[in-house]
Structure formats: C-alpha cells, structure tokens
Please model this.
Amino acid sequence: SAAKAAKSSGGDVRIAQPSERVKEVMDLAGLTQLFSLYDDLVEAVYGEIAPVFSPDACFVALYDAERSELDFRLQVDRGVREAPSRSPLGTGLTSWVVEHRRPLRIADLRRSVEGLPTPELYGTMEMPAAWLGVPMLLGERVEGVLCVQSYRPGAYGEEEQLLLSTIAEQVAQAVEMVRLYERAQAELAERRRTEEGLRESEEKFRNLAEQSPNMIFINAGGRVIYANRVCEEVMGYTREEFYAPEFHFLQIVLPEHRSLVAEMDRFHRSGQEVPPYEYALQTKDGRRLDVLITT
Model:
C-alpha cells in the first residue's frame, strides 16, 4: 500500500506522519505467509518502499553469513534496475551496517566523506547525497540491509529511519520464513530423489531375483517380506501365505536346525558377517530340503 503524501507550499513532497506510515507498512507482516521465494519477497518490499520514500536509488541486499557475502537482489537507480550481484563483505557503507548491526543515516554524503566508509556506487555511478541503510535483524542475526538514497541532501531524518527500520524488521521475519521454506523444499527434493533411487534399486533387485534359479527369501525378525518365484515353486507355499502376519520363517525350518538359524540371524542383524551355512527346510507337503544359505 502506498503511503499518503501531501505537498507543502514550497512544492516539496512531505511523507505522512510516522504513526500513519507505520500503520500502513505493518501490512508487510503478511509477507511471511504470501511469499515463498526471495525474488517475490524482494519485489514486494520494493513495492512498499518506493511509494513511501520515493527514493532516487535504493537496494535490497541479503547477507550470506556462511560465505560472508552480500547478495544484492534488487538495485534501482533513477528508475533503472541493475542486474543482481554478489560481493564480499568489505569496507563499504552496507558492510558497516551489517558489521555494526545498526542503522546508518547520512544527511549529505558529498560533504561528509571523511571518516566514512566508501559508498557502493551502481547504475549512474553518481554519488548520492542522502543515504539511509538499516539492518534486517532477526534477534542478533543480520538477514540483510535495506537502503534508500536521494540526490537531495537531508532527505531522511529520524522518522524515515524509524519507518525503514520497522519495514526491515518485518522483512527479516519474511526472509527467515523463505529460508525455512526453501530448506524444506530442498529436503523434500532430496527425499524424493532418495525414494526414487530406492524404488529403482528395488525394481532392479526384483527383476534379478525373479530371474534367479535359486530361492531368495528376505525376512525381518522372522517375518517374510519377500520370496521370489522359485520359493513358491519349490516350497509349495504361495507368496500370500509367506507374507501372512502369522507366518514365521522358522516354521519351515526343521526343528533340529531352528536354533542355528535363529543364532545366525541374530549375528546378521547385529552387523556381523555370517559365512554360508547349511540347514534343512520342510516343504508344505512335508518333504525335507537341504539348502545352503548365504546372507
């Protein structure tokens, strides 16, 4: 929403009173629910800043603490947008705001260069007069910097600083929400890739297992969770019978070998290497079947 403005007798544009302006920009609280991408968020922030401050130049920079870099997602100078860019944290005005975690307001940069960091120039490369930058703080963590600039000296005072800081506070919360959203999306994408890989591996295994001339059982704690076609043909049980909840693998092992099979299964589940060993199974029709098992 654009801020209300009124012209003075001298023709200068006066920004509305702080209470009115703060009330209007509180709409930014909705950003945490409306936007899921940084670029969408930055566009919304610019849409709020531009009509409120009518800056000659402005930018929105996100701070990448891991890389110690500034990500200038939006840079506008005299209505012309610059391409997004990144730069390492250095000695400029924006870096000063990040490092000190507090606003920096300069009434006339052209006359107050001594002792100040070097301003970052872009677009027309013209030195601004008034410069106001505030950190986007989430607790003690800096999420980025909002900056408005004017070629008119003294364009920004304490009221403008308060307003921009209020906006920055809301934007910091929105940035964190976007970060959490993107992290969740990345985790979901990784999970989907993992699941797809598992499905492909399972499909390959099943194809090989179904073509194998040997019996292949997979059991978990005695429950048969997979039996290939040969198991059905040799043992006489259907897969539905193998997979039934009441079916236990040991019931097809001859009694004299059950303790051996149970012990080897415990070794296998504990991560120990189990060498091939022999035991006997009993088919559904009662026949004895000597087998060699490998795990």
